[in-house]
């Protein structure tokens, strides 16, 4: 298949590109830094700065992973504008371009996030669960709706709500690793909030599975089958690193430092991948300790 990707130079995209190349797919990456694409994604991957560069080249599939990191900086109005532009506005532009083409891809697989659910407390959340309306839901819902409009052009659309990606380089785990390695780690706030995680190999496999499976459409949760509380995650990470986890971070301190963004750390979602499991998707890493050991040791 000839596949167009956005966000391919990010944490998930780089590995996904190499996986798709090994599977024999031809890849084109839409990027702000197209000259860097071959080095980051694979020598055979073509980088483009504008969709117009594709003209009417035939496409079989599109995977849309673009989006500025949500947890890198506090949510000022300027930051929120960037988060919206890099997700919603970019997806809207992509879908408009797809609709204007005479030849359209068979499928669009578009990323979203489990932040769509808002604060789920300890409720078990499937794709059919209702959200708690707050900032992350509003952002993710607009992102998803923009992608779903591709369905009106006869394109099969899959939306993947991605959880916390466990990877050896980058993402939330990289920020946690240093303090935990120094014995300075601990639970955040009460530690009761859930963390729905997924090993990077499983999310990459799921993206390819959705692209290649003609019966898949609609929303899927991109999380491992066994979410854990922040306290359990903390203890498991300390165990894998062989370090104590006795220094909790008070919720009030996080609120003072991070403002509204502290909700990412002090609330959570207990998400399960019900639809993927029902469809027979096979997870390589179902349990947190195994996943952490794989990427950290």
Which residue ranges are poorly predicted, with pLDDT under 50 across at least 5 consecutive positions?
Answer: none
Please give the largest β-sheet: 7 strands, parallel
For the secondary structure, the number of strands is 13
How are the strands ordered across the major sheet? Answer: 3-2-1-4-5-7-11
The portion of residues forming beta strands comes to: 15-25%
pLDDT average, as an integer?
Answer: 96
**CA-based shape:** globular
Structural class by secondary-structure content: alpha/beta
In N-to-C order, the SSE pattern is: EHEHEEHEEHEEHEEHEEHHHEHH
Total of helices:
11
Radius of gyration of CA atoms, rounded to a whole number: 19 Å
Straight-line distance between termini: 35 Å
> Into which percent range does the helicity of residues fall?
25-40%
Question: Could you describe the 3D structure shown?
Answer:
Helix content is 39%, strand content 17%. The chain is built from 11 helices and 13 strands.
Supply the key terms.
297 residues; alpha/beta; seven-stranded parallel beta sheet; two-stranded parallel ribbon; 13 strands; 39% helix
Write the layout of secondary structure elements.
Blueprint: E1 2-6, H1 11-22, E2 26-30, H2 37-41, E3 46-48, E4 61-64, H3 77-100, E5 107-113, E6 124-125, H4 135-148, E7 156-162, E8 164-166, H5 171-181, E9 194-195, E10 197-199, H6 200-212, E11 218-222, E12 228-229, H7 230-241, H8 251-258, H9 263-266, E13 270-271, H10 274-278, H11 288-296
Parallel strand pairs: 1-2, 1-4, 2-3, 4-5, 5-7, 6-13, 7-11, 8-10
Antiparallel strand pairs: 9-12
